[in-house]
């Protein structure tokens, strides 16, 4: 089970430590090691560049300093550390003599364990924040997510993950099964919490969408009844004295005869009155009703929720397969590729931000082109550079 140490058990067998390079055992061809190493290097470089851009974007642009983005900043720092640790992993896979000292590899194992578990905690915090901001009212959210409270949440996530790594280190010294059990509880517990939160978010959004559609339909029905009443009035006027109606419409159109040119024009005039005098009491009630039943859940909230869901799905797809492999006593090439999939999550998030969130993309482009003065809502230091 030495190959299960990567995600990341520190398992003692006699006086030695099970090191991460044991994932690629002696049966693995050296050419395969080179292929995996190249993939890891690509992931590492992409992740370092991408997460650095995310960190700089949030730090340099005040427009990106939303409540959720502070936790995104924390996640970017964690992913950046993971990508840095990947460089040491490549050295371990190739079995180079640069890090032949066991302490370096032990430090790598501790670091990669820490960043993997901290990613779980950060995703849980992002899910909770999204749930609270969407479902609770603004006053409660503003009171909870102050700068002080956000700092405490982030610090707590780091502290509890450090404690977990210490527990894994101690339990792994006595029982590999106990260490795996603790890890399993940590993973399952976090994913259960994250899924529960996002299910509640989507149920709330779906319910709001349903209510909005129902209110739109009721408003359209009320407007249709208003149009029908106006049309009937037009028809009665024409039936009572057709010659007078036509004469009045030709010589001096009244508001009623002007609206009676066609049913469509009657509908248009009732929907878009040009002056308060043109609005009948019934039409005024319909307009007031439409304003009162305006959608309460804006499209921006739904878009943000969808973006967070994409990030969650990417994290789940990358993380879960290898986590399941930890509990299967089998060593195969598939497991190594699942490890690649796991580490690739550290470089995927910046791509998602740049692809789906316009403001992130704009700020990143400004940073890449070294046009810091054109960053939207820059910090004070950058404003002075303009």
From TrEMBL:
The lineage of its organism: Eukaryota, Metazoa, Echinodermata, Eleutherozoa, Echinozoa. It comes from the Eukaryota. This is G-protein coupled receptors family 1 profile domain-containing protein. The keyword DNA repair applies. One of its GO terms (molecular function) is G protein-coupled receptor activity. Residues 50-353 form the G-protein coupled receptors family 1 profile domain. InterPro entries: GPCR_Rhodpsn, GPCR_Rhodpsn_7TM, SMUG1. One of its GO terms (cellular component) is membrane. Keywords: DNA damage, DNA repair, DNA-binding, Hydrolase, Membrane, Transmembrane, Transmembrane helix. Residues 265-285 are annotated as: Disordered. GO terms for biological process: base-excision repair. It is found in: Membrane. The keyword DNA repair applies. The chain crosses the membrane at residues 34-59, 71-94, 106-134, 155-175, 181-206, 308-329, 335-354.
